Amino acid sequence: SWAHVRPAPPDPILGLNEAYLADTDKRKINLSVGAYRDNQGQPWVLPSVRRAEELRLQNEDRHHEYNPITGKNDFVRNAVALAYGEDLCAARHIAAAQSLSGTGALRVAAEWLHLYFKGNPVVYLPQPTWSNHPAIFHKAGLQTRTYRYFDTRTKGLDLKGMLEDLDHAEPMSIVLLHACAHNPTGVDPSRDEWGEILEVINHWQHLVVFDMAYQGFATGSVERDAWPVREFVRAGHQVMLAQSFAKNMGLYGQRVGCFSMICQSEEERGACESQLKKIIRAMYSSPPGFGSEIAGTILADSNLKAQWFKELEEMSGRINSMRMQLYTLLKDKHHLDWPHVKQQIGMFAYTGLGAGHCQKLAADYHIYLTLDGRISIAGLNDSNIEYVADSFAAVAKD
Ligand code: LMR
Q1: Rounded CA gap, 193 and 196, in Å?
Q2: DSSP code for 90
Q3: 346 C-alpha to center of ligand 1: Å?
Q4: Least crowded by CB within 10 Å, which of 48, 202, 204, 355?
Q5: 162 lines ligand 1 (CB under 6 A)
Q6: Can you give the pLDDT at residue 328?
C-alpha cells in the first residue's frame, strides 16, 4: 500500500500557475511563472521560431529517429558558440550535451559533480535563488549552503557579504552563479563586482556552475549577457554551464538546453563526453528532437539568427517599458517610490512585498505572484498595469 505517502506541498512557482488557472474571476492576472507574454497577455511564438517550424515541415527528409545521447551535434556546437563566443570555442576544449532545458542541464551537472568532483561536494547557492535549485543538487546527493547575495536594506547586491561567504567556504567548493538576470531578485553584479567575485573564486579554486537561463533577456544582447561566463573562461576557469532556450526563444515546453564544461585537453574532453553519455543514458536515454531542430535551425542560419536577435530586443524592450511604467505609476499615482523596481534587470521585479501581501493579492485582487514578492514583468500589459499598481499600493499601505 501507499498509505504512508503524504501529499507534497505545491511547487512555489508552478503551483501558483495551477491556482491562477483554477481562478474564474475575469480580472485574474498571472505574474508568477517566468514566461513571456505579449501586450495582449498571450504567449508569443517568435516569428523566427515559426519560420524554422515551416522549414522543418518542408524538409522531405524529416523523421522521428532517436537523437544521439548527447543530442544533435550541430545544435550543440552552435549553442556552445552562442554562450562562449567563437574565439573561446576555438581556444578551449569544451565537452557538451544537449539537455532538457536549463533544469536538465543542472541535473546532469549535479550527477557529474556527485560522481567526479574531487573537492568539497557542497554547492553554494545565492540567498535567495531560484526555488528549484536546492532540490536539483540534493537529488544527486550533494549538500547545498547559501552565500549572501541580496541586501534587503538597499535592495541591491550584498557584495561584501557575498565575498566574505565565498572567502570562508571550504577551498574547492562548488559555487553556483546566475550568469545574468538573477532569478528572483533581478540584481546582477557590475563588471567590476564580477572581477572581485572572480578573484575570490580563483583564490580558493572553487568550481563555478553558471546557470544562464536568460541569455539575451537581461540586456537584449546575447553577447553582453554572456560576458560573465566568458570572463571566467578567459581567466582560465574550468566553468560548467547550464543553458536554456526556454525564455530567449520562447521554447518553454520543448525543453531545449545545453550542458557544457571546459576541459583541459582534447583527450580530457573526449573522456568527459563519454562519461556524460553514460549519465544521460541512464537518466533519460537521449533528448527530444523537435525543439532542438527549431533552435538549431535558427542558430545555423545567419538571417534567421539576425531576426531572432531583433525579437529578443523586442521582448526585453517590452519588459523594460512595463518595468518603467510600473515604477512611474506607483510613484506618481500612489506616492510609493520603489527605485529598485526600475534598477533591477531581466524578467522579474523583486518588489519587496511580503508573503502576507502576496496572499492578499491572490485572494482579494486575483493577482498571482510568488510569495517572495517576485513578479514576472512579462505578465503586465497596457490593459492590466494600472490595476496591478493600484492593487500593490492598496496592500502595501494596509
Ligand atoms: C521561473 O522562475 O518562473 C521559471 O524559471 C520557470 C520555472 O520553471 O520555475
Answers
A1: 5
A2: H
A3: 13
A4: 355
A5: no
A6: 98
Euclidean distance between CA atoms 39 and 52, whole angstroms: 24
Nearest CA to ligand 1 atom 9: 13
Q: Which residues of the chain have pLDDT under 70?
A: none
Q: What is the pLDDT of residue 60?
A: 83
Determine which residue's CA is closest to atom 4 belonging to ligand 1: 34
Whether 130 is in the pocket of ligand 1, judged by its Cβ within 6 Å, is yes
> Alpha-carbon Rg of the chain, whole angstroms?
21
**What region, left, alpha or beta, does residue 182 occupy, with left being phi > 0 and alpha being psi -120 to 50 degrees?**
beta
Q: What are phi and psi of 118, to 5 degrees?
A: -95, -5
* Protein residue closest via CA to atom 1 of ligand 1: 34
The CA distance from 208 to 232, in Å, is 9
Encode pLDDT of 324-362 as tens digits: 999 999 999 999 999 999 999 999 999 999 999 999 999
**What's the CA dihedral at 387, 20, 359, 321 to 10 degrees?**
-40
Domains of the chain and CATH, by start: 14-44+315-396 (3.90.1150.10), 73-300 (3.40.640.10)
Whole-number Å distance between alpha carbons of 50 and 385: 29
- pTM here is 0.96
Q: Where are the beta strands (DSSP E) in the chain?
A: 29-30, 93-100, 122-127, 143-148, 150-151, 156-157, 174-178, 207-212, 240-244, 256-263, 348-350, 367-368, 374-376
Ligand 1 pocket test, pick from 131, 132, 368 with the greatest ligand atom count within 8 Å of Cβ, gives: 132
CB atoms within 10 A of CB 204: 17
| Torsion sign over Cα 192, 193, 194, 200 | positive
For 283-315, the pLDDT digits (tens) are 999 999 999 999 999 999 999 999 999 999 999
pLDDT value at residue 255: 98
| CB proximity list for 391: less than 8 A, separation 6 or greater | 361, 365, 367
Question: Per residue in 165-176, is it b (16+ CB within 10 Å) or e — as a string?
Answer: bbeebeeebbbb
